[in-house]
Amino acid sequence: MITLKEALQLPKEEIKALRDDLKKRIEEKKELNAYISVDEAGDGVPLLIKDNIQVKGWNITSASKILQGYVAPYNATVIEKIEAAGLSPFGRANMDEFAMGSSTESSFYGKTLNPHDPERVPGGSSGGSAAAVGAGVAIAALGSDTGGSIRQPAAFCGIVGMKPTYGRVSRWGLAAYSSSLDQIGPMTQNVEDAAILYDIISGHDSHDSTSANIDYTPVTPNLDPNRKLKIAVIDNYIKDASAEVQAAYETAIKALEDAGHTIVHKEMMGAKYDIAAYYIIATAEASANLSRYDGIRYGNRAEDPKDLKDLYLRTRSEGFGDEVKRRILLGSFVLSSGYYDAYYLKAQKVRHLIKDEFEEVFKDADLILSPVAPTPAFKFGEMADPLQMYLSDAYTIGVNLAGLPAISLPIQKTADGLPVGLQLIGKHFDEQTVFDGALSLETAVAYNK
Hints:
- The chain has 449 residues and is an alpha/beta fold.
- The chain has helices at 4-7, 12-28, 77-84, 127-134, 151-157, 191-201, 235-238, 243-258, 271-289, 308-319, 322-335, 340-361, 386-391, 397-402, 431-445, and strands at residues 35-40, 45-50, 87-93, 141-145, 160-163, 183-188, 230-234, 262-266, 367-371, 406-413, 419-425.
- The protein contains 15 helices and 11 strands.
């Protein structure tokens, strides 16, 4: 598949041929179920869009039954930015319902398959975006990352996925799951393409009250894989990972050392604290954000209700899937009278401790090397227990709680041919170092060679 960098240099007539060829490829690999539909807007370089990002005139449904038939009345800020740069929305990517999941199994449209093994999940919630890029049926894609939803599917599908610093990319037009954690980011074939797309979508937006109004210097013109960095490895993190992930970790450390980087050994709190804090904060915010889908303000309305209470009850019961209901219930519980202080406030205090701990590590390091997931892509049905599924986010959610930038890139394949990805985590608003380190690591491991 042509890279994003190459596609942006094509003349108009060749872009049209590229779009036609892409439609054929998508049809040939329809069984992946990576695309919900092949909608088009404009005639620029085609970019796949996750189904929770508003594109004017498109049915944007967050892969939920409750939003079937909804037509977006405006473009998200990131859509305006990509169109100004010569890109065009091209297709809606499958996802976990309302971005709640780690496997793309909770989608109203059915599961997406991993392009490397159809019996395995592509990750989630941006599984459709990752599978399409990994299968060569998308040049690049936009995803959203609340607790690893860009980085984990990128690792499972053997592509690059990048989560920007919270506030760096506008959330205007992104369907909210957890407002203090959500970020839109690029999913691409390589690190340089990720930097290009990141530069296009970044910057302050007056529409978004959480958008950071700080100076922005483009990353791509200043990419430097030869820059020597201090990279921290978290020794106690890796012990709970599978043998394949541990092997990839050792490969990456050696590759970084051979490239002239300095490795610093550090320890951090157990990831169990990250998981506990995340699933309290995220579900609390989700219960508030999804309260609007009641059949009156937003969402498909249940037919012939007996009264107002029955309308609310049936609309939400029929419209939401099991995972969304589970998280709304948990979030409502931790916000309820008598439990707010015991759970929600404590989780916010732990979030502050997590942020402080990252800052302590960054006093001695430029970047942190970390696993993305405890294992390579797991088989469908293996994570039937929701709590077991939540544990698969152990390495990614701390980054969102602290609001840091991070990038996932493929390191090597297992004996079964499954990709294993790792992530590099950076300091707030220091995406330049994140991309420099990632480009150096990508060059050193030569995954695609």
